[in-house]
Amino acid sequence: MAPPMPHAKSRGKEKGVAASVGDKDSATISCLLSPQTKLRIMATAPSFLFALLAVCIAISTAAAMATAPTNTTGFVSCLTVHIPPGIVYTQASDSYPSVLDFSIKNLRFVTPATPTPLVIIKATKASHVQAAVRCGVAHGVRVRPRSGGHDYEGLSYRSIDAACPFSVVDLAALRAIRVDVKRKSAWVDSGATLGELYYGIANKSARLGFPGGIGPTVGIGGHFSGGGFGLMMRKHGLAADHVVDAVVVDAEGRLLDRAGMGEDHFWAIRGGGGGSFGIVVSWKLQLVRVPATVTVFTVHRPRNRSASDLLTKWQHVAPALPRDVILRVVVQNQEAQFESLYLGRRTGIVATMARMFPELGVMREDCIEMSWIESVLYFAFYGTGKPAALLLARGTKPDRYFKAKSDFVHQPIPRHVWESTWSWFLKDGAGLLILDPYGGQMGRVAPSATPFPHRRALYNVQYYGFWWDNGTEASEKHMGWIRDMHQEMEPYVSKNPRGAYVNYRDLDLGVNDDYCGNGAENGYKKARAWGEPYFKANFERLAAVKAMVDPRDFFRNEQGIPPLR
Ligand SMILES: Cc1cc2nc3c(=O)[nH]c(=O)nc-3n(C[C@H](O)[C@H](O)[C@H](O)COP(=O)(O)OP(=O)(O)OC[C@H]3O[C@@H](n4cnc5c(N)ncnc54)[C@H](O)[C@@H]3O)c2cc1C
Ligand SMILES: *[C@@H]1O[C@H](CO)[C@@H](O)[C@H](O)[C@H]1NC(C)=O
Ligand SMILES: *[C@@H]1O[C@H](CO)[C@@H](O)[C@H](O)[C@H]1NC(C)=O
Ligand SMILES: *[C@@H]1O[C@H](CO)[C@@H](O)[C@H](O)[C@H]1NC(C)=O
């Protein structure tokens, strides 16, 4: 792949980008290094000092002007003062394409037309992240963080507008995991994956686990930023509910922990969506206890084996099951696939199913006992006997095109609707639905406790379409199916606003007006179109926190939280 150079220098939006660092009071941006570092440089390498002075002069000049142009050259030379050259990749670098592609998961954003970053900084230390932010602010180049690159719309490494110059701080190499078994806690860096985290915990104790998402290659940084739910959520809630401290690089390039950032900022980073509230470098987690033995099952119920009846009843049963059980459903082709994780032994789940959902007909033989980490492998790769080391594989090339949308259901959907959905799964271009039930611990936490507001829903629906054909016809067919199916379900799902999950990012909901420029006057008002589906009443608080911690809206993207003015 040969990414084209965005025409940052010749497009109208360029002025606006620079304006964000060109306001009068950005003269207060201090020069980049701490006094200690300056002294050290002065003592050891006078030539660095000149570079430093040049940067300082550039900053002061930019700050003094009303609109400093986006200065990519200045940005890059600023970076080279503070960051080892081997980890800064410009579009001219030979390894730029492989570094860019490393964490791309969706072929939709690997086309020659996809606008790509001017520069990728592959940080190996927090100070590199700080330097990238400070240089970006000083030279009018926005910085997007990328942890695992799973963003459904690719916002961690692409813009939807070729005239929008930006850089990427890639955190894939910042991925240490330190588990403290005695305190049942862990520090995990944003660039680690869920698989690495689960493996790292299980490696230290067979009786500890963590309630995050299912996909092992998903990045910690983006996942926690959007809430994060998985198979233990009915017992333990969201991944973000278990974050007890964090280290973030803010819009001034400062490194702040929970005490330093304050409770409002700390609230916002645990579910307010990635890319708006700084770059989180590390997270401190409260781990959870898991039993020595858990039980899993997967049963398939085709349409002609009462799948409509089962789906109808499932809506009442699944959210009301004991917290130790999750029973989710994947609906695809002409069948419903029921998948379950039970935090206990086989006899327990067989008895619970017989009592609460006998129609499903789960037999003793369907149930498999295993350790918690084996269950993680079971759901990640569908099957038993897989080596735990599989969890450490970050994946190679993206293997598919995909598009997803989401909904929350508060009232059971009538049987006749389920019956009529089967015809949808016979259409050319059909995708699948994933139904994740809430209840249990999810229902016990206040919707304002974290930015994730959908705790009272019966269940989450994900519409997921995927394909391999690179033609536009295929893409239109599959994207069309997802959008039409979503439209079809409107009468039966949450309303005013119709909810959506920020970690299943969906640009159909709307994008910011001036997402790469100067910020629109009425940015907040327009952003409500997507902000309220994701965050409901919490959206206003998020925008208020944004105004406090990043008033210039440096951390901005197509769906970044705008400051409340
Ligand atoms: C195969 C697959 C399986 C999934 N399974 C689940 C699941 O079971 N449960 C669930 O809840 N979700 C799931 N998701 C969705 C996933 O949680 C989100 O896509 C998540 O945002 C991905 O995080 P990332 O770091 O990989 O993505 P990235 O693309 O790196 O980042 C996503 C967003 O967060 C920002 N961001 C990244 N790192 C940081 C950081 N360190 N600080 C601040 N902002 C940052 C990015 O700029 C971007 O806006 C899945 C996604 C995929 C593709
Ligand atoms: C933990 O990881 C180390 C290093 O990869 C490995 O040698 C060891 O067998 C693992 N232990 C457990 C209990 O998984
Ligand atoms: C259900 O339909 C499938 C084909 O879709 C068929 O193979 C199967 O025998 C049918 N089962 C029953 C119980 O009708
Ligand atoms: C699609 O893939 C084929 C075969 O690999 C290739 O020849 C073609 O140029 C591709 N088309 C597009 C639009 O990328």
UniProtKB/TrEMBL annotation:
The keyword Signal applies. The keyword NAD does not apply. Residues 113-290 form the FAD-binding PCMH-type domain. Keywords: FAD, Flavoprotein, Glycoprotein, Membrane, Signal, Transmembrane, Transmembrane helix. PROSITE patterns: FAD_PCMH. Its cofactor is FAD. Residues 1-20 are annotated as: Disordered. InterPro entries: BBE (IPR012951), FAD-bd_PCMH (IPR016166), FAD-bd_PCMH-like_sf (IPR036318), FAD-bd_PCMH_sub1 (IPR016167), FAD-bd_PCMH_sub2 (IPR016169), Oxid_FAD_bind_N (IPR006094). This is FAD-binding PCMH-type domain-containing protein. It comes from the Eukaryota. It comes from Lolium multiflorum. Belongs to the oxygen-dependent FAD-linked oxidoreductase family. Residues 11-20 have a biased composition (Basic and acidic residues). Pfam families: BBE (PF08031), FAD_binding_4 (PF01565). GO terms for molecular function: FAD binding; oxidoreductase activity. The chain crosses the membrane at residues 48-68.
